[in-house]
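User: Please check token order:
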Amino acid sequence: MTERVVLAYSGGLDTSVAIGWIAEATGAEVVAVAVDVGQGGEDMNVIRQRALDCGAVEAYIADARDEFAAEYCMPALRANGMYLDRYPLVSAISRPVIVKHLVRAARQFGATTVAHGCTGKGNDQVRFEVATTSLAPDLKSIAPVRDLALTREKAIEYAERNKLPIATTKNNPFSIDQNVWGRAVETGFLEDIWNEPTKDVYSYTDDPTFPPVADEVIITFEQGVPVAIDGVSVTPLQAIQEMNRRAGAQGIGRIDIVEDRLVGIKSREIYEAPGAIALITAHQELENVTLEREQARFKRQVEQRWSELVYDGMWFSPLKKSLDVFVDDTQKYVSGEIRMVLHGGRATVTGRRSEQSLYDFNLATYDEGDAFDQSQARGFIEIYGLTAKLAAARDEKFGNGVDLGTSASLTAGAL
């Protein structure tokens, strides 16, 4: 029986050529798998037919937009997932859902190998292959660009020689990956980190320098998930799409970062994530109102580790699953409304309210009606500072006290 390979298929030049390239190099039949995670572009049925026309024996199409939004974007939102505190894991969270459908197709069509179009320099090769072995340890992985010497020039020549139904061009200077959570752009002149991004780099966001009139929005959350925008019920996918539209119109969510890749190199990336940045900003502020102090402090440590694990391709790892349990527990009371003003590249929170709020007006106010017993403060400070006081006394005793020096601006007798 002829072996089969399932290929993560985008419909572009490289993966279209990879269908025949894999078949010739390995003798296997190729099953093309295209997964819609909200990347837009061509109709998925057009992509399916192109895969078949390029030699695939089967073409598996999955509309995973709602699944991606609910099961991958929402966990990232609840975890405030931001690699290096800036990148909302646009590509990293899409790879696990794509791999899930690759493995499903492999089981359905009797394949023994999964193939992807990643190079040997990036993070995605790790994300695809580690996720594959985490879901199906028996499946092998190959990467035509990395393992079978499929360069861009060879892809163009192969497509033209075999008259494949795909446009061939060397003009596109960028490598682009996008989905409903955001858009990633790299390579080309962006590899010189002194170069400023040009206007043609951006697609999801308008120029924030000349914004339209400010846009006020109220986002309603239930247990950390947006369920309504301006009082209108939304699904997770609809929430992201609506905030992409409105925050994108204000130029919110543009990110220019030099990041540390898993493979050890630093890489300059441009990201656009208007909906993700606006929603994370709102979610963080609602947590400020509803999470207990120590829980919130520890969650920030968990968020950093969670983001690193996801960036590094460990979505299905035991540690990430354990951290998910903690994050889920923290969201029990993260319900309420956040009012934001979107304008000129910024999402600014202007109001928050929640029935589960830990903010007590009577404790916080400095006006009449203050319920905070200030007489307890002196004893609290004495106990809180006791260890520091004892340590300072010991330092003084052994000549290690703080050298206060003499301020140049003070003279004897100065008032």
In short: The chain is about 40% helix and 20% strand. The longest strand covers residues 29-36. The radius of gyration is 27 Å. The chain has a mean pLDDT of 94.
